[in-house]
Every structure is written in structure tokens, then in C-alpha cells.
Amino acid sequence: MKNSREYIHLWKSYVIQELLKIFKFEMKKLGFFRELDDEEKVKMLCSAFDGWLKIYSPSKVYALLYKSIRDADNARTTGTIGNYRYHEIKFIIVLVDKMIIKYEQEGWEIKNYDIQIN
């Protein structure tokens, strides 16, 4: 039993690090650089990843992140981001949480990330 817990912990640590790499890549691609090197903000994000991974697969978490990062970019572009422009990571976490709540309330399935290969 102890080995399976260690395996799960190791797996989750690996997945969180991979999600963090993908998150940083997507954020940089859209010009969000403000907080990516802030250790406390990254810890907060990794804690959110940990919570989401208790319920959703890594692919679903990535799909939620992908959409939320683009929604944050749209909010920034349209000027509706408000004070979150100084708290980019927190804004993404809030957007993911709101999306999860909306999907649960509506009974919608959160789909796995579907990579578009051209």
C-alpha cells in the first residue's frame, strides 16, 4: 500500500510540473509575463493543479487552462480584466474555477484537450 501512495505522489508531482511547463508556454505565447517567476504565485497555481487533479484527468485540466488563458487574453484585450491585470495567475485560477462550476451546474462534460494537428 505504501508503494502505491508513493507512486501516486510521484505521478502527481510529475503531472504538476508538466502542467506548469505548458501553462508557462501558453502564457508567454500570449504575452503574460508578469508573474511567471514569482515563486509564491507559482506555488498557488500548483496547489490549484493539485486540487483539480483530484477530480479531473491531466488532459481535462489542460483543456480548462487552455480555454481560461485565452479568455484572460480576451479580457485583457477588451479592457475587462480590471485589477486582475496585476494578478494574472490568480485570474486564470478564478476563470478555471468558474468554468468548472458552470459546467457542473449545467451538467456539461469537461472534455479532454483535443490537439489540433494541421
Protein model, in words:
The chain is mainly α and 118 residues long. The chain contains four helices and no strands. It has helices at 2-29, 39-53, 58-78, 88-106. The longest helix is centred in the first third of the chain and has 28 residues, at 2-29. The protein is globular. The termini are far apart.
Shape: globular
The rounded distance between the terminal residues' Cα atoms is 44 Å
Note the total helix count.
4
- Low-pLDDT runs: none
Question: How would you characterize the largest beta sheet?
Answer: none
Report the structural category: mainly alpha
The level of helicity is: over 70%
Rg over CA atoms: 15 Å
- Secondary-structure element sequence? HHHH
The mean pLDDT is 92
Tell me how many strands there are: 0
β-sheet strand percentage: under 5%
Chain oligomer state: single chain
